Amino acid sequence: MTDSPDKMRNVGGKSAAWLRQVGIRTRSDLETHGAIGAFIKVKKAGFKPSLNLLYALAGALDDCHWQQLGSERREQLLAELAAQEEALGMTGKPKWGGPARPVTTIDGGDYQDGQGSDHDDDVTPDLRFD
């Protein structure tokens, strides 16, 4: 997470609003539900999250930028998401389209916050953490 207890890495205003609306307001809430559980709650609430939200939440829990998640980790997340959606009866072709597409990853030493990402990775003071 970031230095301030009031901000969560990778979560911008829109994502934070969705999370608040499904009852995820703290880091503890996110840890309880996990990245996949939180993503499914957002999706079941009628929002249309992209996989970037899933990666952002996983990165927040892993304390890294979402683009630093390796392809193996993204594939693991997608497999777990598909399994949970199937178990919940969320049938049909997933709107996210299946296997992970290549995403440019950034090594920790090469990453600098705020450089060149157009993802909703602004930090927001509205999502409080324990």
From TrEMBL:
Residue ranges annotated for the TfoX C-terminal domain, each copy included: 7-80
Database matches in Pfam families: TfoX_C
Protein name as it appears in the record: TfoX-like protein
Alphabetical list of InterPro entries matching this protein: TfoX-like, TfoX_C
Species, as recorded: Pseudofulvimonas gallinarii
Region of interest (Disordered), ranges: 89-130
Domain of life: Bacteria
